[in-house]
Amino acid sequence: MQPITFQPLYMNRVWGGRSLETLYHRALPDAQPYGESWELTDRPDEQSVVLDGPFAGQTLHELWTDYREDLFGTGLEGDRFPLLIKILDAHHDLSLQVHPPAALAEQLHGEPKTEMWFIAHAAPGAKLYLGLKDGTTRYQFEAALADGTVADLVHAVIPQVGDSILIPSGRLHAIGAGLLIYEIQQNSDTTYRVFDWNRLGLNGQPRPLHVAQSLQCIDFTDHQPSLDTPHGNTLATCPFFQVDHLTLPLGDTIDNTAFDRFSILTVITGELQSLEGHTFLPGDFLLLPRGAFPLTATAQTTLLQTTIPKT
Length: 311
Known about the structure:
The protein is mostly beta strands. The chain has helices spanning 19-24, 60-66, 68-72, 102-105, 138-147, 211-217, and strands at residues 9-17, 34-40, 83-90, 96-98, 115-122, 128-132, 154-157, 164-167, 173-175, 179-186, 192-195, 234-237, 242-248, 253-254, 263-269, 272-273, 279-280, 285-288, 295-297, 301-307.
């Protein structure tokens, strides 16, 4: 088994930029602002396609459906690959938003989404907006929405490169301008915007807001959350994924944490090489199938390894 790589899907966003081009030398489709690169996705309308190797041209959904045990391992259920993995390039502030908790998602005709962020690049002073300032009530929040001052009630932190945070469903959040983030999340595309900084979308019109749904979903007891503190190598763990941050000296190797399960590797710095001689550089994402041969660090390398916890 060799690592599997996919063609990224680039998404126009009013808040996006060109960092994927300048930092990772990627050829973006046109001169528009691109805020998201979907690296692994198995959505009905958005499919990752294998770039090369024996599965070239097949979609992630086809791999998940036809070769699940061979490529991904045992004990994995569900009609679709359970994760959606992205790079986010925030040239401007994203909207204040929330994802629905599982208890409300079906009622709101959405999907629950817990996600985690890893800060890959950060401009000086760039902010993350996380939860509410101490003492903020739902009544105060609704009043601030009405008079346009809601940003005054949102808690903000200034992250550094290498910081991370888990964003559970129900947490009010936004990514501020000047951040490039690796995002690992449940396979969901449900986001409720509660405030969009009074700006216009790419079509010159205000983007839709979902105030009623947002107010049902926001956890109004979530006051001033902090960035996460790693537990050893582990940055985030929840029922849906585990993300570990690893450093490999030159010549060290990496393989799956469990022989009978796959993992996703994200190169942060340095360089990995497969047994077949393929090289993986910063910003590359690869699926390491069950039973794959180890990869070797051909320079000191830092990376994320994402796995699905066994139940």
